[in-house]
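Feature request disguised as a bug report, sorry. It would help if multi-protein outputs had a clear separator. Right now it looks like this:
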Amino acid sequence: MDRIPQHPPVIPSLPEDINRPLWSVMIPVYNCSNYLRETLSSVLAQDPGADQMQIEVVDDASTDADVAALVASIGQGRVLYYRQPQNVGSLRNFETCINRAKGQLVHLLHGDDRARPGFYRKMNELFEKYPEIGAAFSRFIHIDENGNPLSEQNTVMETEGVIPNWLYTIAKQQCLQYACKVVRRSVYEKLGSFYGVTYGEDWEMWVRIARYYPVAYTPEVLAEYRVHNDSISNAKTMAGQTVRDLKFLSKVISEHLPEADRVRVSRQSTRIWAGYELGKASALWDRTHNYKQVETYVKGILDLHTDVGIVLRVCKLYAKMAIQTIAPPPKLSNARPIGH
């Protein structure tokens, strides 16, 4: 089986004669045991009971800890555990999560993220109030390795409700994380699972859903997305894979739009992504001072999108790299300042 499916994997419907809870909180994990206790605790604190919520950890053959023992210790029998027989990669692990989900509403909560108090109550309210929707989401906040707040997602709209013209908004710019999004299982059954790339695969899925279903939103901040150096997205950045994935995604996502809008929206989208990736390239330079790695990264960005603004930012980055290569910044001394 391909680790990265080239087409959306089929999600079979469940038998009609089985008991189904309202919720399936499916927690894909791979070598993130340092954060799993917080993730599970954030869900268990909102647990309505096994008849209403399936909670299951799906382990992609982690090697950093005994995840089964950790789940048993935290969950005390309440949390189910499934381990892949071998490492299958993130996309296949998400597919397994959805296939194993028995609930009507599926929350893919990664093993390093957290649901804030009230998340499941509010999401349930949205699905009840707007029965036509295929998915719903809340605002979220970025947190660091220690759980400290970093920044909040911008508000999509000021009031709660179904988002107008959501397809065009999400096709232009990714503004979600898995932690804040809930999808009907029946939607995955109609549209399939994640595919194509391992950076931005969720963006394509959110666009795919928006093409066929209304989506509801609350401006309440009810989910937390953790930023840390061991994440999959950070590893992809270091390898220069992100911009290659984004180039593929820009084409795939444009095909979800009416033909007359594809070029315009794709151009807007790639410019936003190029600016975002340039910020990451600059941070990569500050962190590593690896000229060749950053240069390769920047070439990929220019292949993604080129205009005057992007070129000027690239020139500024190269100027900084040249100056610091000739005269590298002084290392900080461990000595205390005078008077301390």
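(second protein starts here, but nothing in the output says so)
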Amino acid sequence: MKKKVLMSLRTSAVCASIAVTVNPLTAFASTNRPALQQKSIALNGKIVSKPSAVVHDGTTYMPIWYIMQALDNANIHSTWKSPVWNLSTSHTPNVSDLHVDNGSSSIYINGTFVQRINQIVNVDPSSGNQTTYMPIWYIMQILNCLGIKSQWNGTTWNISNDTQILLTDYEVSSPSAVSGQQIVSYAKQFIGTPYQMGGESSKGIDCSGLVQTVFAHFGISLPRTAADQAQIGQTIAKSNLQPGDLVFFNTDGQEISHVGIYVGNSQFISATSSQGVQIRDLNDPYYWGPLYVKSTNPGI
């Protein structure tokens, strides 16, 4: 039996957490094209398109035309004239803390430059034409600057312009479907994987990406960010932690900025920016212990 979780989406214009890891602009030759995977774009839980996406170095890139159409439905209009993408919206962005990175494409909001990101150029199978693909994870961060929440579960990108949304895309499997030890055993296969912000594979992964990927392997869909994952399931006491539970930390001044999977014996596994996926002591008095915020059981 599945249960649906009602999630309150807190609009936030804080962009300090954006630290875009750029990849080089890639124009794939016809003999060296990456495999395309069908993904979905949804608005307020309703699928609006199913484009073919490029997954490159652990990051998902979607065709910009489909992204623009979805944003248009959310009242964010845009124009694309390579390499400039200009977003037009009534939302007031807060970019005071935004760190501008290097990249091949420039993003403007209401005519004001806000960020650079890299793009991929590849053939769109629907049209047969060369198409620009944008890294979806980094677009989510730009939207967050506008106070617009979106979630990515590895298959569906759901944009919300509502204050609340019933997360039908994030249904939690019944407790009998998978054990906590199964979750832990699978997570350990990622030990040594390098850290990559926005990464979703064994080539590179971030903390919430690891949690989402591990649980998705067992058919349990979770939101993409640590802050959103912290809203799923039942909050439990630290003393009652069981393998497979989630542990959350404040590592950069935000309420929730890091997540890991409890493995037992006061240890947890997570993707750290310094050493990649590692097992660490939850009660480490010099770092993790003081940064611990809460624990949850996500429904296993």
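Even a blank line would do. Unrelated, but nice: Residues 1-24, 163-176 have pLDDT under 50 and may be disordered.
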